[in-house]
Each structure stands twice: as C-alpha cells, then as structure tokens.
TrEMBL record:
<dbReference type="InterPro" id="IPR000182">
    <property type="entry name" value="GNAT_dom"/>
</dbReference>
<dbReference type="Pfam" id="PF00583">
    <property type="entry name" value="Acetyltransf_1"/>
</dbReference>
<feature type="domain" description="N-acetyltransferase">
    <location>
        <begin position="8"/>
        <end position="191"/>
    </location>
</feature>
<dbReference type="InterPro" id="IPR016181">
    <property type="entry name" value="Acyl_CoA_acyltransferase"/>
</dbReference>
<protein>
    <recommendedName>
        <fullName>N-acetyltransferase domain-containing protein</fullName>
    </recommendedName>
</protein>
C-alpha cells in the first residue's frame, strides 16, 4: 500500500477529468448525482484569478478521487446554512461541495490530501474558513468522522437535505428517489492552520 500511495498524483480539476469524475460520483453517491453541466458549474465556482480549489487524485492516470470546492462568495448561502453560527464573515467562507474516493483506494489518506490542497487554494483566494454538508448516513458515519478528524466542527444537523434533489432525478444509494438522509453542517476555520492533523 505504501508504494501505491507514493505514486498518487494530485492535480487541479479540469474538464479533462470530467468524464471520470462523473462516473465515480454517480457510482459512489447514486445515479443522477452528477452530470457534465453540473460539474462544469461546480468547477467554475471554485476558480478565482486562475487559482482552482478543486482537485483530483490520479493513480497511473486513472482518477481515483476528487474534491470539488466553491470559492468564497461564489456560492449561495441558503436555508441549509447557519451563517450566524460560523464565527466568521460568510463572504470569507468557501464551500466544500463534494469529496469522493474510489472504494478500492480508501484508507490511503487521499481524502485528507484533497482537503488540504483545497484549503491551501481557498486561503490563497482569501477564504478564512470552509463550510460543508456531510452525509450522516455514510457507512459508519465515515464522512462526518473524517471531516471531524481534519478539524471540522459540527454547526447543525439538517434532516432531508437532499430530498428535493432526489425528487428531481437524483437516486440516493440508500433511499432511492425519496431521500431522507441527514446532513451535518460543519466548518473548518483556516486561521493559523498548518497541515491537517493525522
């Protein structure tokens, strides 16, 4: 496993990887989760002054993971967000939209490295913190556990976060087209932050 970890490359997410990203996302999160138009919008929301805060992980030129991140002030703060609890100006918060790692390559620190790269890029863009909605029904609640280990703090839980999307074509791998999964709204503050803790 060590040799495999050493050969993983991390590069910014561009359209060259869209096809592989969409395939992996729909495989992990459910059919209809992502398409080309949606991914193009996601990616454009993460670029400011040529700094891209979305990344992919490659092993022998095959995509095995990705993180999509929105730049601060380039994403809608909707009713699933609690900005009064963030302790930082909302316009200084980026949004960690999606983190996905191929099941066969989990446990190698890929998700952590993708998050670290996203944080460093977002900081260069001027962000002071990052918000995310973590899938609480992930196996063993691994999404929340991973984000917590990386410094994330729970802000609020949101039942039915993806219910409307499931009615519009997204097929949750647990609930089908009637998703009632819960989202954990979490934040990572970047101030004086070095590398993510192990």
């Amino acid at each position: 496993m060590t040799n495999q970890k050493n050969t993983i490359r991390y590069v910014p997410l561009t359209s060259a990887y869209f096809s592989q990203v969409i395939t992996l996302a729909n495989q992990v999160h459910g059919k209809g989760y992502l398409d080309n138009d949606k991914l193009s919008q996601w990616t454009n929301k993460g670029i400011v002054n040529t700094i891209n805060c979305s990344f992919v992980a490659l092993l022998d030129n095959k995509l095995i993971g990705f993180r999509s991140t929105y730049s601060a002030n380039k994403w809608p703060i909707d009713h699933w967000c609690s900005p009064t609890l963030w302790q930082v100006e909302p316009q200084k918060c980026c949004y960690f939209k999606c983190n996905t790692v191929d099941e066969k390559h989990r446990g190698l620190g890929i998700g952590k490295q993708l998050l670290q790269l996203a944080i460093e890029a977002a900081k260069q863009q001027g962000a002071l913190a990052g918000i995310s909605h973590l899938w609480q029904q992930s196996p063993n609640n691994s999404a929340v556990a991973y984000f917590t280990k990386c410094g994330g703090k729970l802000i609020k839980s949101h039942p039915d976060r993806w219910h409307e999307e499931s009615k519009q074509g997204y097929q949750c791998i647990l609930c089908g087209h009637d998703c009632h999964c819960e989202a954990a709204e979490m934040i990572i503050h970047f101030d004086n932050k070095g590398s993510l803790s192990d």
